[in-house]
Amino acid sequence: MTAKDFEMVLQAARPKSPPLVGLAKRHIDNLLRRDFIAGAALIDGRWIEGNQRDVVIDPATGEVFAEVARCGAADMNLAIDAAQRSFAQWRELLPERRGAILRTWASLMLAHTEELAVLITSEQGKPLAEARFEIGYGAGFLQWFAAEGERAYGETIPSHKPGSLLQVRMQPVGVAAAITPWNFPVAMITRKAGAAMAAGCPVIVKPAPETPLSALALARLAEEAGVPRGVFQVLVGNPIELSKPLLRDARVRALSFTGSTEVGRLLLEGAAQTVKKVSLELGGHAPFIVFDDVDLDKAVNGAMAAKFATSGQDCLAANRIYVQRGIYGAFVEKFAAAIAPLKVGHGLEAATDIGPMTKSSVAEKCRAQIKDAAAKGARVISAKQDQVFGPNFVVPALLSDVTDDMLISSEETFGPIAAVLPFNSEEEVLARANSSEMGLAAYIYTDSLRRALRLSENIEYGMVGINTASFTGPPIPFGGWKQSGLGREGSRHGIQEFMELKYVCFGDLVA
Ligand code: NAD
To answer: Within this chain, do residues 311 and 446 fall inside the same structural domain, yes or no?
Structure first.
């Protein structure tokens, strides 16, 4: 949808709510005046304005509040040349030096938390408190990988050849590309770039067109932190046009992507041309399983966090909340009561719990899932709102009596709609949880240790929270099974996605 189309839809749907309009623009104009962001792209250490411009839209109001340079394939080729040139020096720096630069970059992010948070909220829509949290979370990956780079050990293998020394070395793979999403526009960049740069690889970032400003602000801070030219570059533009050169060019040795499974498949296919190292963090469809032996309040609090963080636009979001039959009614009642006061609004307003959906297509998908579920017999209980907003807003809702044939039971929602399904036995719920082709995160609430151990062993998901909805962070291996992705981000494993193993055999050592 173009800015003009969006404005037309919005005008038709929007009641008069003047305080919201202009909110993002006032903040951003201030940041532009202070030169905190550039409406440009960073290629080979130069900020280019570009011949064409793309607009940035406040998803809450539809207002165009900034412009950025629209890069094309020729710009991307220049960026790949520059990255390749920078590789030799960057890989030669001692890991300690690279780490120091990453730590300085993280400190600058933290020092500018407020400015970065305002940028995120303005272009992505999430409540400001969540945007502030994202800066700490995002800076944490730079700090984590600064240290991991210093610990990228190889190994010595006990020799099976007489008189030989067998060594395994870890070496940087080469130029890396990062194609990043709009739901965590800062942290998904630092989780990839931190790992790649600590490993010794230059990175080219193509952020989501909806959230370019956060990426460009990160690039400004990277420059200030002393990241050498060509080592961290950001290009905004048409995703297909910009990804083609990245996929085709054999000098780009690694590709890290976060986004939809559909695009992940396309990129995997494209990267096959030059057999790149590919890591993919794709969609989820998390089961959230509540057994009848748990404290209901704890389970409801967990479900609130697992469903409504990032306004539901989170790949870890609980998509199927299975509740054991005996406590089903009580759970629905308490959950609905917790959802009722959630306040929908502009993310820059202090009272807001749920911001707009960043993309209108996500809001439309939520509405289609509600419609489908209601038509098939689900009960819809919505949060109470005193105001009506524009088309990108979705009022949080609970769907009860959801069945496996409803769209929401198999299609990722990515919005603030909670589907609650009853179940009878452990075997039944395990089979239903595992029936998905997605395998990112799962949540299990039970007081039985035996059951927790059994289920955590047999559930087919890459990350499992037992009696908790909060388990991510730099030390953990983030990633999914099945069609939720390939590889891991964060943790000691994340850096491996940007390194190659080299086996060296020193023979004939006996004098
Ligand atoms: P998307 O996959 O289209 O976008 C993610 C990134 O891929 C963006 O940078 C986008 O510009 C880029 N991209 C899109 N098409 C491309 C192409 N053909 N070639 C190269 N790059 C391309 O995601 P979306 O449409 O914005 O969101 C749709 C759904 O994806 C969401 O509803 C959600 O289910 C999922 N999603 C998941 C995550 C996650 O954290 N895993 C993040 C965003 C979206």
So the answer is: yes
Pairing of strands 379-382, 318-324: unpaired
Specify the DSSP class assigned to residue 274. G
Question: Ligand 1 centroid vs 181 CA: distance in angstroms?
Answer: 6
Whole-angstrom Cα distance, residue 390 to residue 334? 29
Is the distance from the beta carbon of residue 270 to the nearest atom of ligand 1 less than 6 Å? no
Domain residue limits at 245? 31-282+488-496
Q: Kindly state if the Cβ of 211 falls inside 6 Å of ligand 1.
A: no
| 143, 92: one domain | yes
- Quote the tokens at residue 69: 């340079």
Ligand 1 center from residue 357 Cα (angstroms): 14
pLDDT digits (tens, 9 = 90+) for 144-192: 999 999 999 999 999 999 999 999 999 999 999 999 999 999 999 999 9
Please, which contacts does 276-280 make with residues 24 or more away whose CB atoms are closer than 8 Å?
276/247, 276/252, 277/173, 277/253, 277/497, 277/498, 277/500, 278/254, 278/486, 278/487, 279/254, 279/255, 279/479, 279/485, 279/486, 279/487, 279/488, 279/489, 279/497, 280/256, 280/485, 280/486, 280/487
Which residue puts its alpha carbon closest to atom 7 of ligand 1?
Answer: 259
* pTM more than 0.90: yes
Q: Do 107 and 231 belong together in one domain?
A: yes
Spatial separation of the C-alpha atoms in residues 371 and 39, rounded to whole Å: 40
